[in-house]
Amino acid sequence: MARAIEIRTSPHLKRARTVEQIMRTVVLALLPICAFAVYQFGLSALLLLITTTGAALATEAFFARLSGQGNTLSDWSVVITGLLLGLTLPPGFPLWMAAVAAFVGVALGKALFGGLGYNVMNPALVGRAFVQAAFPVAITTWTPAFAPGRFAEPIPSTLTPPFMQPRPVGDWVAGLDLDAWTGATPLALQKFEQIELPLGETFAGMVAGSAGETSALLILLCGLWLAWKRMLDWRIPVSVMAGAALTALPFWLLDPQLYPSPWFVLCSGGLMLGAWFMASDMVASPVTATGAVLYGLFIGVLTLVIRLFGGLVEGVMYAILLANALGPLISDWTQPRVYGSGKKPRGAR
């Protein structure tokens, strides 16, 4: 009896993991970072994360309904966008501004391009870039970590009404030595005052900064867990860190009093969170192995160029967004030659 032969197009190998499973795993990896942010900054960090995630979910649902795509919340991708956005904002950032950032990030960074899988840039960074330009004072206003009253009431600026000035910090900082509190992050202290905080403090996260960018140790552990689960390309974060450290090294050797050490560069600011959870975005990053390395090195080098020679203390956000824009070109340039074929003629498509 003849048996029918079923012929299908390639690829014939398929992984058992779905998009939903991958996204849920990334959310799980972010939860310890979120928990530490709440422990470090109290109610304000919790309200900030709830606001950015809730606003991102609402925006996603609105545009999905508007475009007739049905329920797109079940893939968990927009939850990652909301959490990452909240983690990159100052803990006392006004909630209405955080909601605006989430709306812009999902609307312009994702829905405008057609949804999951079509976004050119990381949506969380698109939202943060918008509020960086729209609210420059609020985005650079920092509050002390581990304040005694952080669980009793939120930071005063958190509940500021739209377009109103926040009320004074007042009793929220009771018990803190305000003379010792400079209001500056480790990056600002190093850039403008050449004060480099001890490596142990920046590595563990005992410093001020954005809600979820302070503990390089925790971010590294969560990122390594994702790499072990094969939910990200390890070449990208390793290349980002290598590019940043190697760029910082000669300047530090030339003048260690003026320029930061490579270890400080890796453990301060948003470099670690950006390298492991944003630059590694599966949609916006190159698909080839060589491309992933070049992409990561570009981000690391550009971040240090902005930090050392630009007017801003941090450059990882702009470095990742620019690299996202170059991602398709990098993938195209690094495509392997088909076995048995000759070189592509110059100018050929």
Domain unit count:
2
Q: Tell me about the largest β-sheet.
A: none
What's the count of strands?
0
Low-confidence stretches: 177-182
| Terminal CA distance | 49 Å
Main structural class: mainly alpha
Share of helix, binned: 40-55%
Number of helices: 14
Radius of gyration: 22 Å
The percentage of residues in β strands lies in under 5%
In short:
With 349 residues, the chain is mainly alpha-helical. The chain has 14 helices and no strands.
Please explain how this structure is put together.
With 349 residues, this protein is an all-alpha fold. It has helices at residues 19-41, 43-67, 77-88, 95-109, 123-134, 136-139, 186-193, 199-204, 216-228, 235-254, 262-267, 271-278, 289-309, 316-333. It folds into 2 domains: 18-182, no CATH class; 186-333, no CATH class. It is built from 14 helices and no strands. Helix 10 (235-254) runs parallel beside helix 13 and helix 13 (289-309) packs antiparallel against helix 14. The N and C termini lie far apart (49 Å).
